[in-house]
Amino acid sequence: MVRDAFGHLSAWITRDGRAAMVSLIDTAGSTPREAGARLIMDRAGGFRGTIGGGTLEWRLIAEAQRALAHAAAGISTQTLPLGPDLGQCCGGRVVAAIEVFDTDDLAWIAPLAAAEAGGPISTHATRDAHGRMARRLVATPHETPMTYRPATGELWETFGALLRPLLVFGAGHVGRALILQAAQLPFAVTWVDPRPDAFPAAMPRDVRVMNDPLVALAGAPDGAFILVMTHSHALDLEIVDGALRAGRFDYVGLIGSATKRARFERQLADAGLSQPTIDRLHCPIGLPSIRSKLPAVIAAA
């Protein structure tokens, strides 16, 4: 998954004059990634996304770098048997596309970037007389991430992803470790902590930061996941109470021990919450079989 693919392409082309995209447009047999997997690359060789790693990705990244440096804008495709050609034991076959964009593409990339910023989009692409793929938005979502017709060279693609809203309350050691992982997953992450200077100077660019926990909770969309791990048990209780009372979140989790859960259950009951409502609280959170206290391990669990 590449978030905001067209937004990054637009920014990189505006900055450097060129950018590239490598896509798996068809697959057969055992392959490291599915059709629709892609990565995008800037002129300096920096990239976002993955087509599966290993020799396949290494080779196509190198070819994309050469294309950015020397080839005309447009698309080229190649069929790669993973076993004979690349020595990968998957044994399948992929059809890969390397696409180079330049400033002439900005006019059609801009509206797709704006549309993708609002969520997943579907496009239909055909090759024009100059070897470029001319994409247009289509209203009906595709059933698959990528459909390729070799006879005509047409591509039906899906860009972007539905992101589950995730609110993480607390910027302590576990919160920081968790954010680094959650930002790479299909979540729209909001990080909340009321303490001045609680957040690190550098953080994933897609993470939204807020300082008022109750404002953040009130503005959270229905179906959001709520994870509570602040520096204060009193604040934890206030957030958990509000989240459970709202009754509109798909997950409400609280970091802590079984003892902490028992204490919170008593306090929530004293505050008037019913037992079925209290039972919706997940505490402890994570996998109980993982016993480490290291923040990164807790975050993984």
**SS elements, strand count:** 15
Structural class: alpha/beta
- Low-confidence blocks of residues: none
Task: Provide the residue-averaged pLDDT.
Answer: 91
Order of helices and strands: HEEEHEHEHEEEEEHEEHEHEHHEH
Estimate the strand proportion: 25-35%
Gyration radius, rounded: 23 Å
Query: What is the approximate shape?
Result: elongated
Largest sheet: 6 strands, parallel
Our measurement of the CA-to-CA distance between the termini, rounded to an integer number of angstroms, reads 22 Å
**Strands of the biggest beta sheet: in what spatial order?**
12-11-10-13-14-15
Helix run count: 10
Query: In percent, how helical is the residue content?
Result: 25-40%
Q: What do you see in this structure?
A:
This protein has 301 residues and is an alpha/beta fold. A six-stranded parallel β-sheet has the order 12-11-10-13-14-15, sandwiched between helices. The chain has a five-stranded antiparallel β-sheet with strand order 3-2-1-5-4. A hairpin with a 4-residue loop joins strand 8 and strand 9. Helix 1 packs antiparallel against helix 4. The longest helix has 17 residues. The mean pLDDT is 91.
Q: In short, what is this structure?
A:
The chain has helices at residues 5-16, 54-70, 82-86, 106-116, 173-182, 213-219, 233-246, 258-270, 275-278, 295-300, and strands at 18-28, 38-42, 47-49, 74-81, 93-102, 121-127, 133-138, 146-149, 154-159, 164-169, 187-192, 208-210, 225-228, 251-254, 281-282. The protein is an alpha/beta fold and 301 residues long. Strand 2 (38-42) and strand 3 form a beta hairpin.
